Q: What sequence folds into this?
Protein backbone atom coordinates (compact mmCIF):
# COMPACT_ATOMS: atom_id res chain seq x y z
CA UNK A 1 0.00 0.00 0.00
CA UNK A 2 1.56 3.34 -0.98
CA UNK A 3 1.87 6.01 1.72
CA UNK A 4 -0.75 8.75 1.61
CA UNK A 5 0.18 11.70 -0.57
CA UNK A 6 1.21 14.99 0.99
CA UNK A 7 -1.98 16.71 -0.15
CA UNK A 8 -4.37 14.04 1.19
CA UNK A 9 -6.05 14.79 4.52
CA UNK A 10 -4.65 12.63 7.28
CA UNK A 11 -6.15 11.39 10.51
CA UNK A 12 -4.42 14.22 12.37
CA UNK A 13 -6.83 16.63 10.67
CA UNK A 14 -9.54 14.78 12.58
CA UNK A 15 -7.56 14.89 15.83
CA UNK A 16 -7.09 11.12 15.78
CA UNK A 17 -4.15 8.80 15.16
CA UNK A 18 -4.22 7.12 11.76
CA UNK A 19 -5.23 3.46 11.70
CA UNK A 20 -2.43 1.06 10.83
CA UNK A 21 -2.21 -0.59 7.42
CA UNK A 22 -3.00 -3.91 9.11
CA UNK A 23 -6.22 -2.42 10.48
CA UNK A 24 -7.10 -0.78 7.15
CA UNK A 25 -6.54 -4.09 5.36
CA UNK A 26 -9.69 -5.30 7.15
CA UNK A 27 -11.86 -2.87 5.17
CA UNK A 28 -14.28 -4.89 3.07
CA UNK A 29 -17.87 -5.12 1.88
CA UNK A 30 -20.26 -5.14 4.83
CA UNK A 31 -17.65 -4.01 7.37
CA UNK A 32 -18.94 -1.89 10.25
CA UNK A 33 -16.84 1.24 10.82
CA UNK A 34 -16.90 4.10 13.31
CA UNK A 35 -15.94 7.32 11.58
CA UNK A 36 -16.35 11.02 10.99
CA UNK A 37 -19.16 11.12 8.43
CA UNK A 38 -21.00 13.74 6.38
CA UNK A 39 -24.72 14.33 6.11
CA UNK A 40 -26.11 16.40 3.24
CA UNK A 41 -22.49 17.25 2.33
CA UNK A 42 -21.61 18.74 5.73
CA UNK A 43 -19.46 17.05 8.39
CA UNK A 44 -21.38 15.60 11.32
CA UNK A 45 -20.06 16.80 14.68
CA UNK A 46 -19.92 13.42 16.40
CA UNK A 47 -18.58 10.24 14.78
CA UNK A 48 -21.17 7.63 13.79
CA UNK A 49 -21.21 4.00 12.78
CA UNK A 50 -21.54 3.10 9.13
CA UNK A 51 -21.51 -0.02 6.99
CA UNK A 52 -19.28 -0.18 3.91
CA UNK A 53 -21.22 -0.71 0.68
CA UNK A 54 -18.30 -0.97 -1.80
CA UNK A 55 -17.43 -4.40 -3.15
CA UNK A 56 -14.11 -5.93 -2.18
CA UNK A 57 -12.78 -5.38 -5.73
CA UNK A 58 -13.77 -1.70 -5.56
CA UNK A 59 -12.08 -1.35 -2.17
CA UNK A 60 -8.79 -2.72 -3.55
CA UNK A 61 -8.84 -0.05 -6.27
CA UNK A 62 -9.97 2.72 -3.90
CA UNK A 63 -7.13 1.99 -1.48
CA UNK A 64 -4.61 2.81 -4.23
CA UNK A 65 -5.89 6.39 -4.51
CA UNK A 66 -4.22 9.28 -2.70
CA UNK A 67 -7.39 10.12 -0.73
CA UNK A 68 -9.46 6.93 -0.48
CA UNK A 69 -13.17 7.34 0.19
CA UNK A 70 -15.71 4.59 0.72
CA UNK A 71 -19.49 4.44 0.28
CA UNK A 72 -21.35 3.78 3.53
CA UNK A 73 -24.85 3.63 4.88
CA UNK A 74 -25.06 5.20 8.32
CA UNK A 75 -26.40 4.20 11.72
CA UNK A 76 -27.87 6.83 14.03
CA UNK A 77 -29.89 7.16 17.21
CA UNK A 78 -31.82 10.03 15.65
CA UNK A 79 -34.58 8.47 13.58
CA UNK A 80 -35.00 11.35 11.13
CA UNK A 81 -35.72 8.99 8.27
CA UNK A 82 -38.80 7.01 7.37
CA UNK A 83 -36.51 4.31 5.96
CA UNK A 84 -35.11 2.64 9.06
CA UNK A 85 -33.71 -0.80 9.76
CA UNK A 86 -32.46 -2.34 12.98
CA UNK A 87 -28.82 -3.42 12.71
CA UNK A 88 -28.06 -7.12 13.22
CA UNK A 89 -28.27 -7.91 16.95
CA UNK A 90 -24.81 -9.49 17.08
CA UNK A 91 -23.22 -6.10 16.30
CA UNK A 92 -24.67 -4.56 19.50
CA UNK A 93 -25.14 -1.31 17.56
CA UNK A 94 -27.70 1.05 19.03
CA UNK A 95 -29.89 3.13 16.78
CA UNK A 96 -31.12 2.34 13.30
CA UNK A 97 -29.62 2.01 9.86
CA UNK A 98 -30.78 5.19 8.08
CA UNK A 99 -31.79 4.34 4.53
CA UNK A 100 -31.66 7.94 3.37
CA UNK A 101 -28.24 8.59 4.94
CA UNK A 102 -25.79 7.20 2.45
CA UNK A 103 -22.52 9.06 2.13
CA UNK A 104 -18.81 8.73 1.48
CA UNK A 105 -16.24 8.49 4.25
CA UNK A 106 -12.58 9.38 3.92
CA UNK A 107 -10.19 6.65 4.99
CA UNK A 108 -8.47 9.19 7.27
CA UNK A 109 -11.80 9.75 9.05
CA UNK A 110 -12.21 6.10 10.05
CA UNK A 111 -11.59 5.72 13.78
CA UNK A 112 -12.44 2.06 14.40
CA UNK A 113 -13.11 -1.02 12.33
CA UNK A 114 -15.74 -3.42 13.59
CA UNK A 115 -17.26 -6.72 12.51
CA UNK A 116 -18.16 -7.67 8.97
CA UNK A 117 -21.81 -8.33 8.22
CA UNK A 118 -22.63 -11.52 6.35
CA UNK A 119 -24.14 -11.53 2.87
CA UNK A 120 -27.47 -12.55 4.44
CA UNK A 121 -27.29 -9.61 6.87
CA UNK A 122 -26.61 -7.24 3.95
CA UNK A 123 -29.72 -8.30 1.98
CA UNK A 124 -32.19 -6.24 4.07
CA UNK A 125 -29.81 -3.25 3.86
CA UNK A 126 -29.82 -3.40 0.07
CA UNK A 127 -33.61 -3.77 0.13
CA UNK A 128 -33.77 -0.63 2.27
CA UNK A 129 -31.56 1.22 -0.24
CA UNK A 130 -33.81 -0.01 -3.07
CA UNK A 131 -36.87 1.35 -1.24
CA UNK A 132 -35.19 4.75 -0.83
CA UNK A 133 -34.27 4.81 -4.53
CA UNK A 134 -37.86 3.89 -5.51
CA UNK A 135 -39.25 6.65 -3.29
CA UNK A 136 -36.89 9.20 -4.85
CA UNK A 137 -37.96 8.14 -8.35
CA UNK A 138 -41.66 8.39 -7.51
CA UNK A 139 -41.27 11.99 -6.31
CA UNK A 140 -39.41 13.18 -9.41
A:
Amino acid sequence: MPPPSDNAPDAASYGQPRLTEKQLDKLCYGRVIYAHLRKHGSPVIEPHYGIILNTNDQIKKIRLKSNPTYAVICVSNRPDSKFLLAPPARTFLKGRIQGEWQTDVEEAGILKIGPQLTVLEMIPIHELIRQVDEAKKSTQ
Summary: Residues 88 and 121 are 7 Å apart (CA to CA). The longest helix spans residues 119-138.
